[in-house]
Amino acid sequence: MTKDQILAELQRVANLLGTPSVSQTGFLRHSRISVGCVCHAFGSWNRAVQEAGLTANPSSKGGGKSRSPYADEDLLYEIVRLTKELGKEPTEADMNGYGIATSTPYAQRWGSFARAREEAYRVFGTPLLAGINHRSAWPEAAIPAPGLPDVSREIECNAGSAPA
């Protein structure tokens, strides 16, 4: 997937939604490209949105504790996306290396990354895991909860989409 293809998809989804910006949740619901693919190609979600000529979400700066710009649903869905991509339950190290955010906002919002992972599986459906200790199987026939995106239809990102 090239950067130009990703930008075109961001613009298509914004046009479909009739908005000057695209949230990650809206993109997940209407696109076949994963948010992780977009973030990997551009370094951040807002950078990709800006390069597509759209309005980026404002960062939450100001007095008080810093908060991740991602909505709870986006963070939880990222756990599900990584579960599928990695073929196992993601760890904090996996999230720090491959996720749209580090494990910090998960711990801040849900008390720990493990609790956030449990909540993600409760909200989006628990993947059926093979064996008691071996957690690597995600059935292709897994059905998402009603109204939530079907992660099985995402287009794979290739290594050629990484920033230079």
Written description of the protein model:
- The protein is mainly alpha-helical.
- The chain has one domain (3-57, 71-161).
- α5 crosses α8 (113-124) and α7 crosses α8.
- It has eight helices and no strands.
| Number of domain units | 1
Strand fraction band? under 5%
Tell me the total number of β-strands.
0
* Coarse structural class: mainly alpha
Give the SSE string: HHHHHHHH
Write the layout of secondary structure elements.
Blueprint: H1 3-17, H2 24-30, H3 35-42, H4 45-51, H5 72-86, H6 92-98, H7 104-110, H8 113-124
Provide a quick synopsis of the model.
Helix content is 48%, strand content 0%.
Question: Which features does this protein show?
Answer:
single chain; 164 residues; mainly alpha; 8 helices; 48% helix; 0% strand; elongated; disordered C terminus
